[in-house]
Amino acid sequence: MASLIVATLGFIAIHLFVSGTRLRDRLVGRLGEGAYTGLFSAASLALIVWMAMSYGPALTADGNAFLWRAPGWWPHLGAIVVLIAFVLGVLGMLSPNPGAVGQAGRAAEEPRGIQRVTRHPFLWGVGLWAAFHLVANGDLASLILFGGFAILALGGTVSIDAKRRRKLGAVWDGYAARTSNLPFAAILGGRQRLVLREFSWWRLALALAAYALVFVLHPMLFGVSPTGG
After folding, report:
1. Where do runs of H (alpha helix) occur along 60-139?
2. What is the DSSP letter of 139?
3. Distance between CA atoms of 29 and 184, rounded to whole angstroms?
């Protein structure tokens, strides 16, 4: 359990207390953008692998206790929540986004597609996925792992906003004013509108295919049916 805790805390720390802060700016100044990005990516990957390898042993550790039991209907609701998470995640990865690495210059452009829904679609996808699994499992090890991902994803949206604001100033403020962090908040607030024709069909198809594949293979890969059966 200790290994999972240390790995998760390390993963959260480098993202929330390095990546989105002025410490990152100083490191980039010393190392250069390319070297910093390479080192940060390597550290992130190493910590994710460490978390994944620590999770299995933590599940069977003596200190792992069940803290709650999810209601019987939760997996059925989760099928919808995780589908939304896949759509947000895949579209967030594959669509142009000023919040993504190397795309800050797009903040001067008009938001399109998934950006109209949220300026951080990938992180909201990860956050929804993590929050569902946290509640569904209910044990301490899962609270640490999925809670860590949820904190990182949702806290990361604030961190990226701060990082972009420092770099772009009024340009980012203008982009942020035309969009929202919280999904659909800008649309409901009248600052944006949903334009379905801007959503690429192949990105949506890929998101649905990825969801269907994980849904079918979930019992084989993780030993648990996604419907709770």
Report:
1. 74-94, 114-117, 121-137
2. B
3. 37
